[in-house]
Amino acid sequence: MGHLRASLFIAVTICAGLPAQAGDLGAYGPTFEIIETDLLKDILSKLRKAEKDGRIDELNRKFAEATRKRVENPPPVPGIVTTVKARTWLYDPSIVVPEDIADDKGRVFARRGERINPLERLPSYNKVLVFIDGRDARQVEFAVSQSKKFGQDRTVLVLVNGSPMATMRARKQVFYFDQLGTLTTKFGITQVPATVAKEGTALRVREVAL
């Protein structure tokens, strides 16, 4: 019944999220007694039948398989190409505080409108991000060389294309994937391989031509 309860919970959650309005709307025509089956009872009945027929297990299996394939081969980050002309620039990680932020004792340590540079408050930050296309053997070798140069504890290897899991198994070290291009978009990266490392109170972004 575990799958059944989970499916019922989803169904109830969806129903609960539907907008509703209350009020006397008056009479707009003949009224009749409601004879429809209770919605939740109807859903429960259908779910029980589906579980009995084995369809829920099949749906769960298909969902798990689709998830596995997506993890193994995520959609490539669009707009990223192999570096043709090397570029470099500084990225300012400063943020503007949207509202006052206080600690558990109510003491405000960041006020609304204040501009804060995280690197000024984290002087020991020393991570090096390396972005590559995992389908390109040269770029994978470049990433591994950077990891050896700076140390695996400092280096964060990020794919924008290819299989992070397959690359991880082949190289015996951790590779991440830039889901939805969140990081490359933030840093303005359009070519790989690329690196991002701290330089003073900014981040130095480099698109490297191999």
UniProtKB/TrEMBL annotation:
<dbReference type="InterPro" id="IPR014114">
    <property type="entry name" value="TraW"/>
</dbReference>
<feature type="signal peptide">
    <location>
        <begin position="1"/>
        <end position="22"/>
    </location>
</feature>
<keyword id="KW-0732">Signal</keyword>
<protein>
    <submittedName>
        <fullName>Type-F conjugative transfer system protein TraW</fullName>
    </submittedName>
</protein>
<dbReference type="InterPro" id="IPR025864">
    <property type="entry name" value="TraW_N_dom"/>
</dbReference>
<dbReference type="Pfam" id="PF12477">
    <property type="entry name" value="TraW_N"/>
</dbReference>
<feature type="domain" description="Type-F conjugative transfer system protein TraW N-terminal">
    <location>
        <begin position="8"/>
        <end position="34"/>
    </location>
</feature>
